[in-house]
Amino acid sequence: MATMYYLPESLTADLMRKVGEHLGEYRNNQIIVKANQLLGKLVEKYTIPKKYHQLFLFHIIYRFLITKQLSLEVLFLATNSISDINANVRQISRDVQMTYKNELSVGALEVFGFQIAELLYSYMSHLVAEPVKIAIYSSYSANYLMVLKNILHGIYKKKSVLIVEKIEDAEIVIADSAVNVNDHQVLFYFEDVHRIETWKKLAIYIQTVLIKRRTQLNI
Questions:
Q1: How far apart are the C-alpha atoms of 75 and 173, rounded to whole Å?
Q2: Which helix or strand (DSSP H or E) is residue 100 part of?
Q3: What strands, in cross-sheet order, belong to the sheet with 161-163?
Q4: Burial of 200 (0-12, 13-18, 19+ CB in 10 A)
Q5: What span, in angstroms and rounded, lies between the C-alpha atoms of 2 and 74?
Q6: Model confidence pLDDT, tens digit, residues 143-165
Q7: How much is the CA Rg of the chain, to the nearest whole Å?
Q8: How far is CA 177 from CA 21, 115, 143, 198, in A?
Q9: What pLDDT score does 195 carry?
């Protein structure tokens, strides 16, 4: 477990899902029964997509065993780091601690609750959030459109930023000239593809939109 804890790159998503699937088949193991109980509560309360159930089951069991077997000092989690978190993570942590309140010591329970909450919130903020839809419009150069598309595709995954063809389908319209947009849309004036400052402003704006969207998730 210590090796897996310090070498997390060995745990691929596919491997964790497969292990979680096999663990879910056991019915008489108390650790797995308790993990399934917690997973059921989290699934119902936070609407976790079904395809991620086995992955989360693995993480619950794996994190529980690590927290139970390794000392709190080894886990490198100070108390102040646990308290300095947002309200969503705190609520999830409370849900975890309520389920496992008789299974771990107070200190270990706090660490375990924080780890599961942080993990769940991190996953859901990336998996549940809809991608930001962006349309690109140029009245001067066809190359402008292709350059922007290629660079945005290179920086952002489709689950974060989706380039759409029709302006009316977009949330953000990037343009080098005036364009009529609807009330629910934002027009970002992209001044010059050859200026690094223009690219910096665009990157900062898109990242701000992504962060705001993820922090507003109802989980």
A1: 45
A2: none
A3: 161-163, 132-137, 172-175, 186-189
A4: exposed
A5: 9
A6: 778 888 888 888 888 778 889 98
A7: 22
A8: 53, 48, 15, 14
A9: 84
